[in-house]
Amino acid sequence: MKIVFHEDFNRTDYAADGASVPDRMEYIIEALVGNGGYDVVSPAPASSGDLSLAHTRTHIAGIAEDTKLFEMASLSAGGAILASGIAFKKEPAFACIRPPGHHASGDSSWGYCAFCNMGIALLKLREEGLIESAFVLDFDAHTGDGTLDVLSEWKEVRILNPMAGNNKDYLKEIENYIHDIRHVDIVGVSAGFDSYKKDMGKKLTTFDFYLIGRLMKKFTKKMGHERRFAILEGGYYLPDLGKNVLAFCQGFE
Ligand SMILES: [Zn+2]
Fold it and tell me: Which residues pair with 93 in a beta bridge?
């Protein structure tokens, strides 16, 4: 299991929103590296060619008008690319990145997002001829409309944004959905910890994050390839954010 992280993700000057607040990344890295003992690898920024896999020229140019945001968002997309590449070689990876990406569509973005990190990572693997299909689980409290948009024309990608109202049904919804999938080439998880019971979503417990991680591990084991990666999306209740991400990773590893 590798953690994808870059010192620059500690920066808070690229935006002023819930995802860019101070200490957010520090809490997560302290839990993953300090308590979890995981190794860290650092990404390079996504290239303009990588960004173009998911976004229009106009959207990329619009983000580029804000140099700091563009630098961070390109590095964030680069983190997702690195995590997916590690996963392709059958080692699980979690990318601790920001800004998040699941509200970034081809030609627009909102909700703290700039570029669609998950979409870019998967489209790049496809472009390189490495995968033909994928499953995306997005357990953020908010629907990943950007990921849905960016990957909408790729018929071999299945995306689940669970909608169940309580944690038991939520877990069951994921289990039922993946039960019918016989094979995908890789599993990508948009890990949004704002679905936590003390965060906006008011739904999942720390142990539920562990269980979701473990479900994805079992799913990729069942398919015989263990190709799985996760990337950070939302998650704003800082006191428990580190332990929630660690719980997920311990189920996922
Ligand atoms: Zn969210």
Answer: 2, 229
